[in-house]
Amino acid sequence: MRVIDPDGNQVGVVPTEKALATALEFGLDLVEVSPHANPPVCKIMDYGRYKYEQTKKRQEAKKKQSTFQLKEIKVRPKTGDHDLMTKVGHIRKFIDKKDKVKVTVVFRGREITLSHLGREVLKKVIEETQDVAVIEQEPKFEGRTLVMVLAPR
Would you say 127 and 134 are in contact if contact means Cβ atoms under 8 Å apart? Predict the structure, then answer.
């Protein structure tokens, strides 16, 4: 097997017994790095420290990963301006926390004939949040609801 010492220098191709003896001289472990190579490659290293460093790298990568939630705000086609501005304030808070926001206009009963009012409500929301949010999904009907998704800019 091909052996690499702790400094990264190649010892050469040696029998297994000699490789183990060399690892014992260093007081470290003999770890098979590439078993499918011809001859197999082994490295002399502290295996416990190697495993510890691998878990630390994984934890760091997980920390840097960005996560978001999808928050939902429901409005009605006849929602008043003041109530709508309150909801826009909530949307801004969610967007500041890097969450996506699903804005839903719910139509009940015969209100479905007022779909133009629902689109106007969503246009107002878009105008009020255009400085912090971008439209990820255009307004579209899903049954009796009109749905739009906003994402942070």
Answer: no
| CATH code of residue 108 | 3.30.110.10
- Total domains in the fold of the chain: 2
Tens digits of residue pLDDT in 99-112: 999 999 999 999 88
What confidence score (pLDDT) does residue 65 get?
78
Q: Are 124 and 80 in contact (CB under 8 A)?
A: no
| Non-local CB neighbours of 147 within 8 Å, separated by 6+ positions | 102, 103, 104, 105, 137, 139, 140, 141
* Residue 3, pLDDT above cutoff 80: yes
Strands (E), 1-152: 2-4, 10-13, 29-34, 41-45, 70-75, 100-106, 133-142, 145-152
| Whether residue 80 sits in one domain with residue 137 | yes
DSSP state of 40: P
pTM of the model: 0.60
Which residue intervals of 65-114 are DSSP H helices?
81-96
Q: What are the structure tokens assigned to 69, written together?
A: 């939630």
Q: pLDDT value at position 107? A: 93
Please report where in the chains the tokens 């899903």 appear, as a residue: 142
Q: Please say if the pLDDT value at position 67 is more than 90.
A: no
> In whole angstroms, how far apart are CA 94 and each of 62, 112, 125, 151?
22, 28, 14, 10
